[in-house]
Specification:
By secondary structure, the protein is an all-beta fold. The chain is built from one helix and 24 strands.
């Protein structure tokens, strides 16, 4: 019978011509229709990230508002949502799906109790992790070798060598890109070419599905101070007992920036007479100058 209200009539007649009639009214209803459209089957998401689900829904007899919606995670048995059908579509978003394969099904039930279902399967990927084991000291001299040691792991990757590691400095930019740790999950790299500055170096590990883990370390590469002797001139000759004026300009990249030039340790020393002066430099409006007579 086609959908709709039908009146069924049954008439019986015996051999003597006697008759009787009975009737019944039945309502024939079609099942609703539904199809999960988002996300696509086999899509991969990172654990904790939002996943949007969408499905079309319709029914030949009922209005959208009369349809009952139930989204379930068939893998865990968890009820997920009963968002209504609006404009022929039911949608919801969740970030609580567990890691691994998740079979998610939507069921649409009409006012007659008839239902239809559709499902999709997605994979929730637990991200890899990375720990910076070194450097662990906060200060290095400019030109000193800085050794980076990383430990990486991924609970869903059989071999750590399939992971990719990047190192990026906030000062010098990309240091290392697209390298793999060894089979035990460690990676080491050394450099003596970091710029004098305070660096935040971020390590990022990426698994084959694109999920990432990060760690960061902060340290300073310290540039040495500079000094220029203005007086006396190299090789200049003085009479014994006459005064000698000593003058120098000093600078330091970090101490000038932090206002610590007045505590910069400056020592004038003679190979014959030993230490001559240990005064701190004075700012003359242009440079940090140290001057004394001997």
């Amino acid at each position: 019978l086609p959908s709709g209200v039908h009146t069924l009539v049954l008439e019986a007649e015996d051999v003597r011509g006697g008759t009787c009639v009975a009737s019944a009214v039945v309502d024939v209803s079609t099942r609703p229709e539904t199809l999960v459209t988002v996300p696509a089957f086999g899509s991969v998401f990172t654990l904790g990230s939002p996943v949007a689900f969408s499905a079309t829904a319709s029914d030949a007899e009922d209005a959208f508002a009369d349809l009952i919606v139930s989204w379930e995670n068939m893998t865990t048995g968890q009820f997920l949502s009963n968002q209504p059908v609006v404009g022929g579509v039911t949608t919801f978003t969740t970030s609580t799906l567990p890691s691994g394969a998740n079979d998610v099904r939507v069921t649409i039930t009409d006012s007659s109790g008839l239902s239809a279902s559709s499902a999709t399967t997605i994979v929730v990927n637990m991200p890899p992790s990375v720990s910076i084991l070194s450097p662990s000291t906060p200060l290095f001299a400019e030109g000193e070798t800085v050794i980076f040691q990383l430990a990486v792991s991924d609970p869903e990757t059989a071999s750590p060598s399939s992971l990719l590691v990047n190192l990026v400095s906030s000062v010098d930019g990309v240091l290392v890109t697209g390298v793999s740790p060894n089979a035990s999950g460690t990676y080491a790299w050394a450099t003596s070419a970091l710029s004098a500055a305070t660096h935040t170096v971020t390590a990022t590990v990426t698994d084959p599905d694109g999920a990432q883990g990060t760690d960061a370390v902060v340290f300073t590469v310290n540039a040495p101070p500079e000094i220029t002797i203005l007086s006396p001139l190299d090789g200049e000759v003085f009479a014994s007992g006459s005064p000698v004026n000593f003058e120098a300009v000093v600078s330091d990249l970090e101490d000038e920036a932090s206002g610590l030039m007045t505590v910069l340790g400056v020592v004038w020393e003679s190979d014959l007479d030993g230490v001559l002066n240990t005064d701190s430099p004075v700012f003359d409006g242009v440079d940090w100058v140290l001057e004394f007579d001997s």
